[in-house]
TrEMBL record:
Protein name: Methyltransferase domain-containing protein
Cited Pfam families: KAP_NTPase, Methyltransf_31
Lineage: Bacteria, Bacillati, Bacillota, Clostridia, Lachnospirales
Entry-linked InterPro entries: KAP_P-loop (IPR011646), Methyltranfer_dom (IPR025714), P-loop_NTPase (IPR027417), SAM-dependent_MTases_sf (IPR029063)
Native source species: Petrocella atlantisensis
Stored Gene3D superfamilies: P-loop containing nucleotide triphosphate hydrolases, Vaccinia Virus protein VP39
Annotated Methyltransferase domain residues: 460-567
KAP NTPase domain location: 22-320
Signal peptide extent: none
Amino acid sequence: MSRIDIRDIPIIHEEDDYLNIEKYADALTRFIVTSDTPITISLQGEWGSGKSSLMNIIKKKLCDHDSDEKFEAIWINTWELYLQGEEKDIIEHLSYLILKEINRIAKSKNIILEKEFDDIFSSFKRYFFKTSDILMSMTGADEEARKLALGMFNQGEHTYVSQIRNKIAKVIDILVHSENGISKKGFVFFIDDLDRIQPSFAIKVLEVLKNLFVIENCVFVLAVDYEVILKGLKSKYGEDYDENDKTYRSYFDKLIQLPFVMPISKYNINKYVMQVLYDIGYFEENHAPNNRYQAYVIKTINLTVGKNPRVIKRLMNAVKLSKIFDDSNEGLLCNDGMKLANLIFVCMQMAYPKMYDVFEQNIHYKTWTKEQQEMAYDETFNKFRLTQQKQFLDLIFEVFEYDENINKETLEKIIALSVLTNMSYNVDDDPLMYNGQEYNLSSETQSQQGSTLIDMIELNKGIRVLDVGCGNGKTTLELYSKNPSINIDAFDLSLSQIKVAKNNQEALGVPESQVNFYQKNAITIDYENKYDLIFSNATLHWVTEAKEMYGKLYKALKPEGKLAVHQGGFRSYYGLHKVVLQAIQNLDLEPYFENWEYPIYYPTSDEMEHMLLEIGYENVRVISHVTDGKEHANLIDNFKNASLLPYLNKLPDVVSRENLTTEYYDLCTSQEIDTYTHRLYIFAKKGA
């Protein structure tokens, strides 16, 4: 048996198909061979689900043999195409690339169609010149003139595109009816990596295929994530186009005759996972773990990273690294129990980072407080994922009780080993998590802004206050000092921030009965008629579901309760964000940020006021405070410890994160930086 390749590359040969996707390739191959053309098939699935591997196997079955059922293969990697030019050039580049590939195959069979191809290329040149010429001529024209010109252009465009398509069809027909070894079946175009490029770019690719290449004797197999197409359609037609997804689905269905969803849930990962663990030397195949340990391994992976092949490969590389490091140092992974415990913690890092944080703070799970038990669960998960999370925790307790070699001392060493891989840093959908110690040392900007907010509010005696996103607690404690008769519940998403807040509280001697710090995700609150004042400083711009969030705050207020919030406003810190983007470009890190939007809600004052009134707030007042940022002496450092984190969370390892941070600082110190700052101070009231 060959070793399993855990590099992040698709399967090329059937013998490497440990997930048994060949049976799906067989069915799709027979479907293509027995279907009339033209036809377009989509292989739909999330990134890393095996679409490219499935296409490779289909290509081999359809094209890499000599028979009457053979097709000619043309492989187009849209990611490479995307990197070659601007989005506006996609139609031209893709069209030329497909035609050049067809011509290359023809020449390889000694079929000379120079006249026909020259005619098509000339038509393309006229078409693209006409497109750019009309668009250029409209520069500076008023809106009505632009609409008229585009209308005139579009009327003739359909006819012109049809003419080009007919010329391409003629060439294809000549080739399939030649006697020079070209397939009689035609051409299969494999379009890969549509889910790696910008959604608007993916839509243009689909439209090129629809308008120019839906031709007899042509088959298209597309690797695509429907969610990417949906984003592209929403960008093109608007979020509320037809008020639901029916129109988007209809658009997609017109392009695709056979949608095939990657059967991730059907993948049998048992054999695959164990074989990889043997191949990398984590377990010894000659002394394989007993059936119970193997069952624990499989259940651990199923309940954490799941069955996505790419994610499993990332996991296995992390496990391999931990084993190599351990072999050269303490030799902790000396039996199956220790190896299983290490695997559990690495999986936990990837899937449930909050749970991992709790174990890291208190490995002796039997002594967890009620608060720590609650912290171990991530309330942002959907119901199914939350159930898996609880099952995983039950599994952990079972494993740790089952193996007599696992105790508090060994677990402390194992979790220290798992820190080496730091997999939790790159979970794409993780909420923003601050480092409490670093933030505590560099949060002057946020503290200044919080003090400004405090100065703008009155605190009646004995009121109950909720502080949303309390951070290191300094602003919360300043709020309390203004009127020590009040009671404050203060929470933050980051457990390390809460620990720092409690330390700051203890240093000032503020009783817990007056100020209660606890860990919670803001979007999960479900309080009702509970607080006289809801206070929040430099937090709520991180909640992109803004209307839902402010609606929950409205619900949590008592009748006539008040809202006092400071958050970022439109384009705040845009100059510093430009520096980060320049740093990303300088370090060639752009691929990690494809199809990603910075998770922020920076509204204008009018947008904020309108939203609050829609929710039901009264006496809404939004103060827009714009400065050059010079009043904040440590703004560049403060930005690094807060606003830079979402960028760092997208990077795969410690080295790339440190490089980005260093490049950010280098750029900030080597040039004049625009530190434009726009803050909103928001005040409102709930009706009686």
